[in-house]
Predict the structure.
Amino acid sequence: MSGGSATPVELVTDFTAGTLAGLLAHGDDAPALTPVEHPAGPLQATLHAALAAEVAPRTVTVVWADPVRSVAGIAAAAAFEEVDPDAVRAEVTALADLVVRLAARRRAVLFVRWGRDDDPGLGLLDLHHPQAPGRLVADADAALRAAFAATPNVLTLDPLPWLVGAGPAPWSPRQWFATKVPYAAGVLRAAADAVRTAVRTLDAGSRRIVLLDLDDTLWGGLVGEVGREGLVLGGHDPRGEAFVAFQHDLRRLTRIGVQLALVSRNDEAVALDAFDHHPEMVLRRADLAGWRIGWGDKGAAVAELLAELRLGPASAVFLDDSPAERGRVREALPEVLVPEWPVTPLLYRAALRDLRCFDPATLSREDRARTAAYAAERARTGDAAAAASIEDWLASLDLVVDVRPLEDVDLARATQLMNKTNQMNLATRRTTEAELAALAAAPDVDVVTVRVADRYGEAGLTAVLAVRVDGDAAELTDLVMSCRVMGRGVERTLLHVAGRLAAARGAATLRATFVPTARNAPCRAALEAAGPARDGDVYRWDLAAPPAAPDHVSLAGSAPGLA
Amino acid sequence: MSDDLRAAVLAAVADVNLQLPDERRLADADTTPVLAAGSTLDSLATLNLLVGVEERCAALGLDVALLDEALLADPDGPLATLGTLVAHLAAVRAAAG
């Protein structure tokens, strides 16, 4: 990466800095960095060289040196010579003073924390004996951090994760003797990532809000289908425990000023009920800065919510288990960080930690109180209009709805769908496999299964329709659809398919009798959107003007009237 | 078979490429120069590549010394290109039995 806005990063190291400089200069991720190298040498000498150098005002300096090579007393201890710990402390204090002086001339100094390399030193005594190298390094590390505490622009980077993540041999004797770099390549890669993250935090601030989907993101299962009692959350279950751990990590973010908000396709009352009453929910309503829970477009919902909270898209992260929803939000709001998300919740917490986009450069009392402030603001702020284009997104999905007569191989899944679906369910009629098979075999009935796929993948068998025809009148007896595919025009397509099934058998009208339940309001909304005549809970279409399918949906399959 | 050795070399190439600007990155081809004329590697990148190859070969159980003065001094020798490097590694393994 390059460009005039690149942040200068000065490297003060006691090893060859060229490889690290290359990784910083040519990484693909933002922000762009321009490394400034000093010749490798003893830390004290390199710090003096840096103090004498003219650098750009925005320069961030990385100080990375090994304590054994930096402090004569520690080097002597590593050679098992007798040393005076007070003299070592004086050397460390002098180095700390140089770093603090350098910080006064730099935007920030990123000091890589001191620790022991792979030398076992005095073994069992290494952290115990006052003259052991391990003990002296540990004491020096503590003294440095204490010395930097009063200088807010000296920030400490911990190399331990870099070393652990680099595999079984983070220190490389080959690399040291060949290039005078003590670390394996993986350590330098991780270090470059950490420096980039730190500069990003300093440059633009960290992300300030996490926008969360609910079903299969914050808990397992569809709350609208299974109710809060049926959610996979907590308990003695690996997935349940993983969701709880993920929620704990989200909640700790709120304590450093990161807000949490919900963007979910759900019934709002049902979803929030889980926050209020599920015994194993870690997050509660009070932890939320706001929410948009409904059946609309998520891109628009994210835009509305951010406007309500007076946050820009560059401050937001959107987490959703659905690739389609992630794609929609990326398209609508490119500045929102929308990371790919693991398939299994067992990796959710690790994925959140890996984002490294919430690191605060400072931490104030106001940061810690921000969630409460937003909760108050939520009561005052009105909705804001979203500018995202749902039509463009739908058109880009390459949505295919495949409709086939019910086959034996699909009987179990179709029955399951009939018995578990609550929200998009016309009659909420429960059935057995035998009953459904018998219905499909009836000469005057078409039972079809529906599979949905888009450019993000296949959603599988997600809907079942049953249409009975008597003369020129047809009855849509069953319409069930998983809410996983709601909001993409599939529900309108199903009504169109029902019309074509009926017309193929010579019907002139199609009727649907809605059986209301506590949870199937979305189904009524879908019926009404398809333009029928209505008499109470009975909806009727004249098949001379059947329900239209959305333009962005392609129909496929072998069902009657469609093949 | 030298597929594993080729994979080791390419993994080391991938590491080195991260340190290089686009125009100097090594192509995945037998003819890509390492020491031969036209190489895009400076001395540090060359050493990083060879260290990376040595470490990956060690993980495969092959102890090989590429940071050898004679090898490094010969632009037309075993380290001339990625292809000759893989062939050299295969020969060292064959010789080791």
Observations:
- The first strand of chain A starts at residue 7 and ends at 13.
- Chain A has a mean pLDDT of 89.
- The CA atoms of residues 33 and 84 of chain A lie 42 Å apart.
